[in-house]
Amino acid sequence: MKYRLILLFILIISSIEAQLLQNKNNFTKQDTLRGSITPEREWWDLTYYHLDIEVKPELKFISGKNTIQYKVISEPNEFMQIDLQQPMEITKAIQDGKELEVQVEGNANFILIPKKQEIGDIKTIEIYYDGYPREAVRAPWGGGFSWKKDKNGKHFIATSCQGLGASVWWPNKDHMYDEADSMDISVTIPKELMNVSNGRLKNIEEHDKTITTHWTVKNPINNYGVNVNIGDYVNFSEVYDGEKGKLDMDYWVLSYNLDKAKKQFKDAPKMMKAFEHWFGPYPFYEDSFKLVEVPYLGMEHQSSVTYGNQYKNGYLGMDLSDTGWGLKFDFIIIHEAGHEWFANNITNKDIADMWIHEGFTAYSENLFLDYYYGKDASAEYVIGTRKRIQNDRPLIGEYGVNHEGSGDMYYKGANMLHTLRQLVEDDDKWREILRGLNAEFYHQTVTTKQIEDYISQQTKKDLTAFFNQYLRTTQIPTLEYKIENSQLKFRYNNIVDDFDMPIEVEIDGKHEWIFPNSEWKTKPIKGEDFAVDKDFYIYSKKV
Ligand SMILES: [Zn+2]
């Protein structure tokens, strides 16, 4: 009996272990089709989309087509991969007036190109589709369509699809590396509602019972940035005098929230001023800047940043840093708009490098504070967010399978950048680097390596070990020290090879730099008075 129990116990344990092992690398063929630059994607360069759909709120149904224009850049080009997540369905694909064969493999659709296309050719293909798109479970995290009603019982509908992918509601090349250079978005809806998408409103076509809103985007746009927001909207606007000239800033809110919005959205021009200072000109002047109210928290949709922070300061009224500074601004306006520079202007090629979006943008919150309340306030804020770091997984995820790194990409990312600012030790230079990134990688998709190399070149420091430590491990460098016979002894523990980041410390009440590595080093000290500057994200431990 006892033996059997033990055997059962062993069986249970080993089955749990097997499951854990399986979960670790449990990527499917579908993940690879979604997350890698497949041969069926590689041969064509996306140039333009025209998404033209009808949204039927009563049925929670959408139908329409996406016209895709592309340039042929390599051979062979027998199949073209277009992504559309089930239960949505491609009904037909048309090129040069002919219907093409579509082979479906889960969420990937392979369209058979009947005859060879020459390198350099510019072609278009129309993808017709329809269906009941996935309903957002907990937008924006569990994305899809949010079919909500406002307080007056009117339809209040929005899309969100970061991570999940835009192919959850429209057919496209659903990989971050390739962006359409421009886009048109036409949305047909019941007459009593309004739709707000990205870019500028070209015109509204009126039909018997419906209207079609035509929006146009003049700049490269990532797929998850594309959005549809439908509701009983009213609009107000202002012209901002920015670094690149006059910038239209438009605000679309529910009719009954107009007064609240006029007060709360004063953070928007303040944001623009602070971020143009730190990051350079807003990257999409041609498309204007918009804030659009939605029935979920918010998202960085390009040139139509969505807002659902209940017209409160902080994050739904909370201060993420617990220092008080987080209540000085509306978190969603500042954070989501910060993404216009890091996510929409500089975009990760692979979602594994999403820390480029979230790390820099979480860091932008404290630069906003820095601009209006000074350096100490900003440091307190970013250091305050440290307690939210889990160190569960590295910031960089797995490449090629649409896999994000740890949620630590926000606060650990921000604290890594704050630490880097200390190493640069020159705020003008630091600002030049942040602006330089936005100029160097203007409207581009990039890898972590490109960001690392740029910062290393500009700072003239080899930051390889620094980035390896903070981006690719969960280890936090620990400065071990002891004080014996008027000697301070110190070394790093818990570090990657070659990690030797200098840090600022106080010794006998005097501020200085020390240069620890994995070997014990010594320095004279008179008393017991030793402390590491809190601006550096490391641990210290007396041993
Ligand atoms: Zn974000």
Task: Describe the protein.
The chain is of the alpha+beta class. It has 12 helices and 29 strands. Strand 4 and strand 5 (98-100) form a beta hairpin. Helix 5 runs parallel beside helix 6 and helix 7 (355-373) runs antiparallel to helix 8 (375-384). Bound molecules: zinc ion (ZN). Zinc ion is lined by residues 335, 339, 358, 361.
What descriptive keywords fit this protein?
alpha+beta; eight-stranded mixed β-sheet; 29 strands; globular; binds zinc ion; 543 residues
Total beta-strand segments: 29
- Largest sheet entry: 8 strands, mixed
Q: What ligand species are in this complex?
A: zinc ion
Query: What is the SS-derived class?
Result: alpha+beta
Strand portion: 25-35%
What would you call the quaternary organization? Answer: single chain
Mean model confidence by pLDDT: 95
Radius of gyration, whole Å: 26 Å
Terminal Cα span: 50 Å
Number of DSSP helices? 12
Bin the helical content: 25-40%
